[in-house]
Write a structure and sequence with these properties.
The protein is an all-alpha fold. It is 89% helix and 0% strand.
């Protein structure tokens, strides 16, 4: 892959990760508004906590580790957190009333913290692959534009057409797919990725995708049942 294609690929990664990150925030706020009511408060508080967590994640992004490996595993962990978060939100609200806010906000902080590491890692990868003036600014534009498109699509189409739970699953699979694709492409240049990340992430991607598609209806029914009981 030449320098121009690598740069476009990084821009695509920035756009997709920003899209997923902002959409996660909207999904989590929507679930909390269903559970606790007061839509304005839930969206405001969730957004504030999420953005602050992203800032902390950006600040604490590891600088001495392999940026590509860290990015791949962040995508995997984000996918796992995205899948379990709605379940834990509703379960804690039904079974753990006294600590439900702690559980919910801890999950929001965790997802926001990891999401905040994505852009700094991608900028490091961009600088190491093809250092050039102006590319960081274009990456920032892709980041902001991805969040803008996520907000529009979630409000006008995704939430209405699929509902927050299915959108959340799609986002999780998108993060897993990014980890898998990055492992494959970057593995051509990095022997460590070929030996460990590629086979393991490929197995995780295939198993999780199969499990999610097989159990999506059960996943949604269980959450709906807990909400009704609550």
């Amino acid at each position: 892959m030449n320098g121009s294609l690598r740069f476009r690929f990084i821009l695509l990664l920035v756009f997709v990760t920003a899209f997923c990150s902002y959409a996660y925030e909207l999904v989590l706020a929507n679930v909390l508004s269903v559970l606790w009511g007061n839509v304005v408060q839930q969206y405001t508080v969730t957004t504030g906590i999420y953005i602050a967590s992203m800032g902390a994640g950006a600040y604490f992004t590891p600088v001495r580790l392999n940026a590509k490996k860290v990015f791949i595993w962040i995508e995997v962990v984000l996918a796992a957190l995205a899948i379990v978060s709605p379940l834990l939100f509703v379960y804690s609200d039904v079974q753990l009333k006294t600590i439900s806010p702690v559980v919910c906000y801890a999950l929001i902080v965790s997802i926001g913290f990891l999401s905040g590491m994505e852009l700094p890692l991608l900028l490091r990868i961009l600088e190491s692959d093809s250092p050039s003036d102006g590319k960081a600014e274009k990456a920032l534009f892709a980041d902001y534009f991805g969040m803008f498109i996520a907000g529009l699509l979630f409000a006008l189409f995704l939430n209405r057409q699929f509902g927050s739970l299915q959108v959340n699953i799609f986002l999780a699979l998108a993060n897993l797919a990014l980890a898998w694709i990055c492992g494959l492409l970057w593995g051509f240049q990095d022997k460590q990725l070929r030996k460990f990340e590629i086979p393991l992430v490929s197995a995780i991607f295939l198993v999780v995708t199969w499990a999610v598609l097989q159990n999506l209806a059960i996943y949604q029914e269980q959450i709906a049942r807990w909400i009704i009981v609550n």
